[in-house]
Amino acid sequence: MLQCATMNRIKRVPVAQLDRVTDSDSVGHGFESHRVRQTNLFCTAKEVYLILFLCVPNRSSKKQDLFLIKAGSENPNDEDMLRQESMKAERIINDGGSLMKNNTEINSCKTVLVTGASGGLGGALARLLLERGYRVFGCDLRAASIEHPEFHALNVDVTSEQSVQKAFNIVAGETDALRAIVNTSGIMFMGSLIEEPPGRLEQIVSVNLLGTDRINRVFFPLIENGRGRIINFSSEYGKYTTIPFNAFYTISKHAVESYADGLRRELQYLGIPVITVRPGAFKTDMEKSTEEIFFRIKNNSTHYEKILERMEPLMNIGKRNAKQPEIMAEAVLKAIEAKKPKRVYSCNHNFLVTLLSTLPERLTDRIFYFLFRN
After folding, report:
1. Distances in Å between the alpha carbon of 40 and those of 2, 15, 301, 321, 324?
2. pLDDT computed for residue 344 by the predictor
3. How far, in Å, CA of 85 to CA of 90, rounded?
4. Helix (H) or strand (E) segment spanning residue 358
5. For the CA atoms of 162, 167, 169, 174, what is the dihedral angle to 10 degrees?
């Protein structure tokens, strides 16, 4: 037997009847609760509460429907206890909207750490932040050449724990808090998975994934002190299908997506937002290097030269659609300043790749095969 309580009353509902539970208070909103399945949790955890917040379309009232589900007790005195717990949870909803620490309020700190500050996107963001009155610590393998009294250039190798720790010591000597970490650093690479020399994949992952992790982990105390947020750059390829000869980069960005999901779900308990940015093509040094890399692998390939020639128009489509990096910088600024930031910010995605990603994998395989085969 399960006990199902709403704000105003207690219902006792057998497990078999919990396939669909409708709260009459919610019927006016046209809402039915999500399906509740019987699990071992309900059978064995006698004092465990599962709290489900059921959001309704009508946002005019602070009061939301709440179900408290308790397992394993038939004590009639539990009704009073459940009512008390329900009232306590409602107060938490009205005060903060969550049972976890909730810190989506904008803090007063205006210091931001930007990695990849010498690149197109990182540099554009750093300059925009400086224009808006922020203090910026710009990290890169080569120091960014931005002349501004509030810009502090740092030589940092994100693949080196020692280098990142040294940068942290410098930043911590200047400030005890950060508004945000923005991880724009990354490298783009194209090539055949069977033709590239050993260590190529490790090189890409070391920068794009492990470098992001290293920065976030080492600088986290400053984010925690400032009640700040972490912004990780992925890519449009982080969620889309893998294009032939772009697997090195795509693998690393898919990994960044998984990393960001895990970090976000952990830090939500601490009230620290984690945001993913998925840029498409922009006019940066990375975009220029893509063309150079493509022609290098085409000229050096022993298996795919003809196929790569046929793929060249696909690369040119992305090049023609590249936008100015300032557009992406504006989107990231919104992620930094939003009271309640979105989970993901996307900008200028490739329509063709987006379309291919909606198709079944087998069909996508056949499309690539017939379009570019010898």
Report:
1. 13, 12, 56, 52, 54
2. 94
3. 9
4. none
5. 180
Question: How many helices (H) and strands (E) would you count in the chain?
Answer: 13, 11
Measured between alpha carbons, how far apart are the two ends of the chain, in Å? 65
List the beta strands (DSSP E) in 244-360.
274-279, 344-347
Tokens coding 199: 């260590």
CA pair distance 315, 320, nearest whole angstrom: 9
Strands 274-279 and 180-183: unpaired
Q: Are 289 and 188 spatial neighbours (Cβ–Cβ below 8 Å)?
A: yes
Short-list 222, 203, 88, CA closest to 157: 203
Distance CA 119, CA 62 (A): 45
User: Where in the chain are the domains?
Assistant: 2-96, 111-372
Answer yes or no: are the C-beta atoms of 267 and 274 closer than 8 Å.
yes
State how far the Cα of 99 lies from the Cα of 64, in Å rounded to an integer.
13
Percent of the chain with pLDDT strictly greater than 70: 68
DSSP string, 151-217: EEEEE--TT-HHHHHHHHHHHHHH-S--SEEEE---------TTTSPTTHHHHHHIIIIIHHHHHHH
Q: Confirm if 185 and 115 have CB atoms less than 8 A apart.
A: yes
Nearest to 134 by CA among 114, 112, 105: 112
* pLDDT, tens digit, 9 for 90 and up, residues 62-93: 334 333 334 444 454 555 665 565 555 555 44
CATH superfamily assigned to domain 111-372: NAD(P)-binding Rossmann-like Domain (3.40.50.720)
What pLDDT is attached to residue 299? 87
Q: How far apart are CA 230 and CA 273, in angstroms?
A: 6
d(CA 208, CA 159): 9
